[in-house]
Amino acid sequence: MPREKRPSQGLSLPLGTPPADASLQEWLYQSLREAILGGRLPSGSQLPSTRALAQHYSLARGTVQAAYQQLLSEAYIQARAGSGTYVSEVLPDATLHAGYVRRKVVPNVEPPRAPPDTPWVERLGAISPVFGRRAVTPGLRPFFPHRGDVRAFPVDTWRKLHIQQLRSSRLSALFDSDPSGLPALREAIAGYLAIARGVQVSAERILVLSSVQQGIDLCLRLLVPPGEQVWVEDPGYPGTRQLLEVSGCLAVDVPVDRDGIRVDEGIRRAPKARLAYVTPSRQLPLGGELSPARRLALLRWASESGAYILEDDYDSEYRFIAKPIPAMRSLPAADSSVILAGTFSKLLFPAIRLAYLVLPPQLVESFTRASALISRHANSLSQAVLADFINEGHFDRHVRRMRKRYASRAEALSEAAQRHWQGLIEVPEIRAGLDIACHLQVADEARACARLAEQGIDVMPLARYCGTPRAPGLVLGFAPYEERSIFDAAQVVQKALQGLR
Fold first, then answer.
1. Cα–Cα distance for residue pair 318/401, rounded to 1 Å
2. Kind of pairing between the strands at 473-477 and 435-440
3. Tens digit of pLDDT for each residue in 175-206?
4. Is residue 477 within 8 Å of residue 133, measured between CB atoms?
5. I want to staple 244 with a disulfide (CB 3.0 to 4.6 A). Which of 26, 221, 251, 482 is the partner?
6. What is the pLDDT of residues 63-77, one digit of tens each?
């Protein structure tokens, strides 16, 4: 088997300044030997030619040849015919060179420095990020929520589109792109929104980002001064509440019932709030829709108070009992007050890190400038591939295929609950989405979650989404799990929770 060739590292190795009391040959020899024994020139690495090293350090070539010859004679380096000079794989015993003292790495004895004393750092210390390590665990233990089935994604198609973008004639995707997003992708998103979400908007009003979380952050930075109030659904998306906490804005918990956010209660609690964050197409985590009457009431409040509405349309495409309902942003009265947020992480795969905002006309310039300042632009290569993926019909086919698959798995979860969870977990009708909030009928959430985790089952306690105490519950995902694994895991859940009654 041929020996692996390692790149030459000597030219990039700083050797310091020759001391006044040593010859250049002795200095070069000692510097190279220390670099070898100290690991900066690792075993097997190739040294530059004597000519190249002499030119690089402005030395006579004879000086370099003499230093190399001494290292060769002591077995620190070896010459390979027709290949070059390499650091020996096995170095000579240090006792053969009694005068040499190997340089030791001095540990850092400076006392640890305390974190900066800033409001952001102080507030970050008080929260446990919703996107922490547990949320990015690569495994698929049932029934962790908010995940799609990445195994069903058409990887071969995506790879083909990637290769097309990397042709020499199409390398523009490797450069910086428009801070608003690649024009081709914004046009594709505008076309998709017109058909699937009933939103008629020009591509110039669309801002491409890396995540909806980034969009929420922009809204808080640009629309809500510190100390001002923001409506959040209760229960609701915990990522919004955490951003509010570290931004210094005041979260106002507005209760949610079967018709969505209680607009009247929001007005009673915070009539002068600057922003309302809502999930009207499928409330997170309870799963209901905001009723038409409350949509109009919410729009009327925003118009009269000068507030904005951030509509998070995170997975409404996966609706099983009927066609997806139009986004609230599609209503005529929503044009100047509603910011629509959407993501491809739920529809395709999390690592794509592409999302978008549909902005009212008066916010386009400020949001684009802020995005360019903070993050410049989202990944332009992924944007180009996604644009082709949408325009060639792959996106629509994938969503339709996954809608059927997730509907089957939702049905499997409902059937498993009927069969195994009577008196333990009450699962409501599953009409859409990737997960479902369920009523826990035994023990408390913390004990139930801990017991399930011990048995290899991951769930989210409903309390994680709540600003105020609520009846015990669990949020269970079903989308990534095949029907057979759902039934098997349901039996594990049954055995684990029966001991808590």
1. 10
2. antiparallel
3. 778 889 999 999 999 999 999 899 999 999 99
4. no
5. 251
6. 888 888 888 888 888
- What are φ and ψ of residue 253, in 5° steps? -70, 120
Q: Rounded distance, CA 296 to CA 309, Å?
A: 12
| Residue 316 structure tokens | 């409404």
pLDDT tens, residue by residue, 463-477: 999 988 888 999 999
The three state secondary structure string of 31-64 is HHHHHHHCCCCCCCCEECCHHHHHHHHCCCHHHH
**What is the C-alpha separation between 103 and 38, in angstroms, rounded?**
7
Q: Which residues contact 386 (CB under 8 A, 6 or more apart)?
A: 185, 188, 344, 348, 352, 354, 395
List 4's β-bridge partners, or say none: none
Whether omega before 235 lies within 30 degrees of 0, making that bond cis, reads yes
What distance in Å separates the CA atoms of residue 392 and residue 394, rounded to the nearest whole number?
6
Backbone angles phi, psi at 485, to 5 degrees: -70, -30
At 500, the amino acid letter reads L
> Residue 85, Cβ neighbours under 10 Å: how many?
19
The model's pLDDT over 150-182, given as tens digits with 9 standing for 90+, comes to: 999 999 999 999 999 888 667 776 777 888 999
pTM comes to: 0.76
d(CA 308, CA 215): 14
pLDDT, tens digit (0-9, with 9 covering 90-100), for 420-471:
999 999 999 999 999 999 999 987 889 999 999 999 999 999 999 998 888 8
Q: Which helix (H) or strand (E) holds 106?
A: none
Instruction: Give the separation between CA 428 and CA 431, rounded to whole angstroms.
Output: 9
Strand partners, 342: 356
Token pair of 195 as six digits: 């058909």
Q: Which domains does the chain have, with CATH numbers?
A: 10-96 (1.10.10.10), 120-136+153-396 (3.40.640.10), 401-498 (3.90.1150.10)
